[in-house]
Inverse folding.
């Protein structure tokens, strides 16, 4: 019998699981306390749980830590891991160090089917979804590394390999575990889920009753350009996407962030900046814009704009009243772009 991964249980779901076994709801509090507060992952050491039930836990449940298959450390302190799951599947997880905390960039799928033209993740098609427990495991591995420094993960972005809303239920369970006060207790405002624009997922997400941030990978100010680099835009065109975002804002009461990768000679002109500002103003959406100079991927052929072009784009948006930032870059001396490390490994084994 395949064991159930306790990392994958949101607190309320674990209470229900314990009740279904004829145990009290208090068992969930005990388990969360041992796992997340005390950092004990050996059922035998959970001494306030009866010996008989500890035996049940050993036989039927697991705490599955991914194995570190490869590790890259950048000069700026960024750590990129290629993690191996129990079935041998490999995914990337990244730790980035900001002045406000330690940010874990988590993958939600093994490979990705969205096919964005600029993205290294799409070099390898989706093999399967990650479970909520495997995603929690990504964060737990980084916490083990940070523990040596007396630190822990303080912020999480679901922006690694995969489309989170293509794995919706597992991602929501993951978010609930890391946000749970008895769990990893990462504040809702410190968690961000990013989507390339799956409209049904955006609407559903707005009704979850969570205060988790939402980021939209926009990357173009119109459908003509967006169609060239993001196949999803052919399924959900800009008017439909904007309507879903407005629906999200109304239900969640949260502003969204538009992620905008700047690609030299494609979407980095001042005209594009003006068009993006018009799009945001005309839609009535109260959005932030996060500009991301592209990490060139050899197989894709896209180039990074000049510093002058990046700042001209930023300044134009700011002058148009759009709150805009330029993302700080991490890991420039390692395989920085999402999916590069895994793609390099897979290529080396073929």
């Amino acid at each position: 019998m395949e064991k159930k991964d306790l990392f994958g249980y949101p607190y309320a779901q674990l209470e229900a699981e314990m009740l279904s076994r004829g145990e009290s709801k208090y068992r969930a509090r005990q388990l969360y306390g041992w796992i997340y507060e005390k950092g004990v992952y050996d059922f035998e050491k959970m001494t306030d749980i009866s010996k008989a039930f500890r035996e049940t836990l050993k036989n039927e449940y697991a705490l599955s830590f991914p194995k570190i298959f490869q590790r890259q450390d950048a000069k700026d302190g960024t750590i990129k891991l290629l993690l191996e799951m129990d079935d041998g599947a490999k995914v990337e997880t990244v730790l980035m160090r900001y002045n406000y905390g330690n940010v874990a960039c988590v993958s939600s799928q093994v490979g990705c089917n969205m096919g964005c033209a600029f993205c290294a993740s799409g070099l390898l098609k989706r093999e399967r979804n990650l479970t909520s427990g495997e995603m929690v495991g990504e964060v737990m591995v980084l916490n083990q590394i940070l523990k040596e420094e007396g630190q822990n993960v303080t912020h999480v972005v679901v922006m690694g390999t995969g489309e989170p809303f293509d794995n919706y239920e597992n991602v929501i369970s993951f978010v609930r575990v890391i946000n749970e006060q008895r769990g990893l207790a990462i504040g809702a405002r410190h968690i961000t889920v990013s989507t390339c624009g799956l409209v049904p997922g955006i609407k559903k997400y707005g009704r979850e009753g969570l205060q988790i941030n939402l980021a939209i990978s926009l990357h173009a100010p119109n459908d003509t350009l967006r169609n060239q680099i993001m196949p999803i835009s052919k399924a959900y065109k800009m008017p439909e996407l904007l309507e879903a975002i407005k629906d999200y804002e109304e239900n969640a009461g949260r502003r969204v962030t538009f992620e905008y990768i700047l690609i030299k000679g494609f979407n980095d002109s001042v005209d594009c900046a003006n068009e993006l500002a018009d799009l945001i103003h005309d839609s009535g959406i109260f959005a932030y814009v996060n500009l991301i100079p592209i990490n060139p991927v050899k197989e894709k052929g896209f180039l990074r704009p000049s510093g002058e072009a990046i700042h001209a784009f930023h300044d134009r948006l700011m002058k148009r009243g759009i709150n805009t930032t330029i993302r700080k870059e991490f890991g420039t001396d390692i395989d920085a772009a999402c999916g590069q490390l895994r793609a390099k490994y897979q290529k080396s084994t073929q």
About this structure: The chain has two domains: 4-62, 67-349.
